[in-house]
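Page 47, continued from p. 46.
Same chain as before, 568 aa.
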Amino acid sequence: MPGRVGTLGFLGGFGSWPVLRGVLPIRRDRVPAEVLAGLTLAAVGVPEVLGYAKIAGMPLVTGLYTMLLPMVAFAVLGSSRHLVVAADSATAAILAAAVTGLAAVGSAQYARLAGLAALLTGVMLLAARLARLGFLANFLSRTVLVGFLTGVGLQVAAGQLPDMLGVTAAGRPTVPRLVNTLRALPHAHAADVAVAAGVVLIVLAARRFARRIPGPLIAVVAAIVVSRAADLAGHGVAVVGTVPRGLPGLGLPAFSGHAITALAGAAASMFVVILAQSAATARAYAAKYDEEDSEDTDLTGLAAANVAAAFSGTFPVNGSPTKAQIVDGAGGRSQLSSLAAAVVVLVVLVLLTGPLAYLPAAALAAVVFLIAAELVDIAGLRRILATRRHEFAVALLATAAVVGLGVEQGIVLAIVASVVDHLRHSYNPLNSILVKSPEGHWRATPVVAGARTEPGLAVYRFGTSLYYANAARLAADIIAVAGHDSVTGEAPLRWLVIDWTAIGDVDYTAAGVLAKVVERLHEGHVRLVFTSVLGPVRHELRRYGISPDAWYDTPGEALEAFNARPAH
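Result:
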């Protein structure tokens, strides 16, 4: 029947609405697969978000809250059909670094400050949406993101070791805390170590058979059963304690000028991470399934998700690559899977939080440790090292900054490193002199003193847009090409053709440098020709008062005009 293979009745007609773009149209034959993917997401996601709540310093139940209103908000208002929005390790770590010094971990004031951080992050995401700044996601390079997330993974993993060993280790920075943990090894509690080791073995065994098997859920359930049956709390094993049952209460986050000032930097860091990580994940799946995806619409969904988190007693949320992979691997192809997962979490909150009181802290720490270990992208770092050694240094710098200085400082340094790396490329572009091959095709050759395309003419191509930092490079290249014929024995330069194919913009400083180059060439009786100039760039040049002796559409046309000139 048409209804079975098509969309669900009236719902199919609203696929063009600005809401539910990630859900509609719903195909009836796809509903079972979407629901199954949602169940799989909940099975794997519940223990994960409990771990993320621990990383964030929040009450465990707030991790479950991230899979309710925030997840639903993105499903309704986002455009990506595959991005799963909930608690995330990177944003949780940034939050903990910012709020730990402002309130007692796990306290009501701490939770309200976390809500304020989520609200500030949501406002920044909404402002970016209104200003159409989705393109900013491109400014945190994949290289830096690999280094940053590796640093986060190392920091979070090191922070779980004391609970896994049943010891106390003072120190907030990663390295001192790790040193203190190693010193406390002789005092490790055997029962805690056994619980942690058991969880690790169960999760790794499940992964070995199939990633779809919810290893963390199996491990957590097993730890709860053993803890209750053997009364591990009575044998000195710390347990998480009572987890509130029921729906999250709606309320206002903490509002004060001091709190806003204190958390603004962390919110900005989370904004950048959310923007980069969510956009990269959404793009990857949109490309995989040849779907349209709007970064700006996703910003609306991410902003709404974080605002929902702020007013529902939880902490900032982010698009999760791992959860998106879980859903995709389970056969989910729309946000209907996220909505199904939210329903499962709702049931857990209403009926099943009681047993969580028996969950050993060592078991939860082991789950978090394994989550953090997956962030340590050794394979990615090796690929970068094998192909781009200087970018590997940037990634390593980002990792070291997070581990040595902290997550918030690390993301700032990561952004700076991305910008510096970009500037380094644009400052030192691959410029060339174009010459004709024997077959008549253009090929690029190095820019050297006295280089010629053919006697009397040089076609010079600048490799990127002209701005204040690289304009001197253009001037130096042209002077070298134009001024060394007497030394090299080349024919004197009569025409200099600048090919503008790669130049998309000319700033004020570069225009001044270019004007001086034009003046010097005219003093040397060299005819200056521009080719392949984009319309907006030609308009810029005219506004700056820069005009060559001739304009041609291509270097080939300029070469023909040069060869057709009257003999002198």
